[in-house]
Amino acid sequence: MNDTVKTRRGLVRGRTHDGIVSFKGIPYAAVPDGARRFLPPQPAASWDGVRKAGTFGAAPPQRPPVPGIPAVWQPGDGLDCLTVNVWTPDPGAAYLPVMVWIYGGQWIHGASSMPHYDGSVLAGSGVVVVTFDYRTGFEGFGHLPGIPDNRGLLDQLAALAWVQENVAAFGGDPGNVTVFGQSAGGASAALLAAAPTAAGLFRRCIVQSLPAGYLDVAEAQRVTERLAAVVGAAPTRDGLAELPPQALVDVPGARLTGGRPGGAFAPVIDGDLITAPPWQALADGRARDIDLLCGFAHDEYRGFPPPADPARIDLAAAATGLGLAPDAALDYRAAYPGSTVTDLFTTLMSDALVRMPTTFAAEAHARAGGRTWLYDFTWAGPIGAAHGIDLPFVFGLPHTRYAARFLGTPPPAGFAALSHQIRAAWTSFAATGDPGWPSFDVHLGRTRVWDTTPADTAYPLPESRRIWSRTRTSPTASTGNAEGTLRSR
Fold it and tell me: Can you give the C-alpha Rg of the chain in angstroms?
């Protein structure tokens, strides 16, 4: 099998393993340092000869997500992070479906080199898999006067443009591209689906666990001012570009939010690339021609740090703080009889942070005339059906450290069968626009329930949906940056 491919910028040589050819670390944009720092992505330079594409590029600047987790970025790595990776079952093929993955990670973490994002198993299902790195944290989402916001999303657009220009050389069909992502990556996919700038770059979208939480320009500016004050620089591009990336990632997010719930960085509703959170942006029909498959884990909030004293949970105060009606706590108790206060709190927070944003996005897209599918991932491992549990199933990788937390060690015997079914659904959707279960509409709410034995049902949590339909407060306004609330896996 040929492992050398000609891209628009030059030849690349990959590696073949178990019938899959992988190409890693291919630049899709120039290194965003020096005069290019904090600017939109610029074109990558061409090269002579054959570029070895056997190792991943650098991750974007970031700290380890939690103590004890190895860092994916070191200060010596710099900013050379705008690279793309491809796994293909046959570089000589033509018109294979293309699936482009966008990682999550609180808008401040994540890298395509993380082992649980390896695309080889998924590519074995007959698709070309593409992953890439984009700028996170202040480099990607910090607000600077006179500089375009959402540089991380602009990186994603540049990577998708690279796919259009080059994926045919790897056996893929540039006219049949599906973008898929989880959490912040799912939000990215949904935001790009609704962005006119992304028109023509992809035709399908898979959104796994769409979070609440986006910033307006005023709050993003306040974050910049707080950051500048901490590091002793002017809150401008010139002032902050003088500092190394390490100086910016070392500032704890808690010092930048001013006490606001959630994280310091998220997509900025700038009125240009991003005009509204996804469930509002999709409502006007601008993405009706894009097929949308979306869903949530059943217990999104389970597995996050529990309250210090569960006996002191004030469900009414939590509900009111999320913008719900004053009697919402009573509604939750009535809707889920027999549940403990801790369980009710988990359901409430799962609804607020992920389930309702995902549900609202599905409803908005369906009402606007877009083909829509919805799922509820209920298969439960050691910590339940928690945020991120779907990733090992989608990528077919049960033996990573990431997967061990959700599946246990060794993984259960039923993993392989369910993972195969989910991968078949995802790749069928990418190939044909049909994942294999009835489409979602706002009247019937048909939903695929992913468990040991998958089933198709009516919307599985109608009472939660009813409670949230009574408030005029959107999840993005009431919960702050939800992705920042979620502990990275």
Answer: 22
Cα→Cα distances 236→142, 225, 260, Å:
11, 9, 23
pTM over 0.70: yes
Cα 192 to Cα 180: distance, rounded to the nearest angstrom: 11
The 10s digit of each residue's pLDDT in 42-95 is 999 999 999 999 999 999 999 988 878 888 999 999 999 999 999 999 999 999
Is residue 221 packed enough to be buried (19+ CB in 10 Å), middle (13-18) or exposed (0-12)? Answer: middle
**pLDDT tens figures, 392-435:** 999 999 999 999 999 999 999 999 999 999 999 999 999 999 99
d(CA 404, CA 366): 36
Q: Which of 308, 280, 103, 248 is nearest to 186 (CA)?
A: 103
Active site residues per annotation:
183, 300, 387
State the greatest distance between any 2 C-alpha atoms of the chain, in Å, as a whole number: 68
Task: Give every CB contact of residue 199 below 8 A, 6+ residues apart in sequence.
Answer: none
